[in-house]
Design a protein that fits this description.
Number of helices: 7
Distance between the termini: 34 Å
Number of domains: 2
Structural class: alpha/beta
CATH architecture of the largest domain: 3-Layer(aba) Sandwich
Order of helices and strands: HEHEHEHHHEEEEH
Shape: globular
CATH topology of the largest domain: Rossmann fold
Strand content: 5-15%
CATH class of the largest domain: Alpha Beta
Number of strands: 7
Mean pLDDT: 94
Helix content: 25-40%
Length: 227
């Protein structure tokens, strides 16, 4: 994996904050004083919301902002923040873009969304449902292939097998990682208001990396996406 040094990046500011933080204005003010080009945020649900709102409230405009934010993948967070998310880049596991329409995933999502409405949970289910279903498909196929529930037998089989899932073909590397990573980087673009329906498709959530799953182009700098 490329390091900060190999990418010639210089860290100009770094800080943490208590999980109890509710006012992120001072945090953003500190970052602004450092005048960074890139802002990489590692946050959970509540602080992701707080940081997005504070960055917008302060009119802070680095060249690129986002990173490892837990929250923007979830439907309630998307609808709560709406257009405030424009320009932010963060990770996701599955987005309804053409290159991620693996066999069976659309049918699985349709069933999940119907059940989600009745259960009162995430109505889109894009973030967790496809990956969780794929994990269960891997286990199912390994159990059938080995005829066993023994952990050692299942692990041995999984190391060399290829699994067909709603996340595409899955094969594991030497260290247990996915041989072909499926985590994507998504930029929110042209979000209008706070409606849920606009997030059912891929137009507002553009996969910008990796190239094999890309559905559009990164808007850079960040300020251009805020217009």
């Amino acid at each position: 994996m490329p390091t900060i040094q190999s990418r010639a990046l210089r860290v100009v500011h770094e800080r943490t904050y208590p999980l109890s933080t509710s006012d992120f204005g001072p945090v953003v003010d500190e970052i602004t004083m450092a005048d960074p080009d890139l802002v990489f945020i590692c946050s959970y649900l509540a602080d992701s919301i707080g940081m997005v709102r504070a960055i917008n409230d302060r009119g802070f405009r680095p060249k690129m902002v986002g990173g490892a934010m837990i929250g923007p993948q979830n439907t309630p967070v998307k609808t709560a923040l709406g257009a405030l998310l424009n320009g932010f880049v963060s990770y996701d596991y599955w987005v309804p873009v053409p290159k991620m329409m693996f066999p069976g995933v659309r049918e699985m999502i349709d069933i999940d969304q119907t059940r989600a409405v009745a259960a009162g949970v995430d109505e889109l289910g894009h973030y967790v449902a496809p990956l969780a279903y794929a994990q269960m498909q891997v286990l199912e196929q390994a159990v059938i292939a080995t005829g066993s529930l023994d952990d050692a037998a299942l692990s041995a089989h999984a190391r060399g097998a290829n699994f067909n899932t709603v996340m595409g073909d899955v094969k594991f590397g030497e260290s247990g990682e996915w041989a072909m990573p499926r985590v994507v980087q998504v930029q929110f673009q042209n979000v209008l208001g706070n409606t849920l329906e606009q997030f059912r498709g891929a137009e507002k959530q553009v996969v910008v990396a990796p190239n094999e799953f890309a559905s559009g182009t990164l808007i850079y700098p960040y300020a251009a996406a805020k217009r």
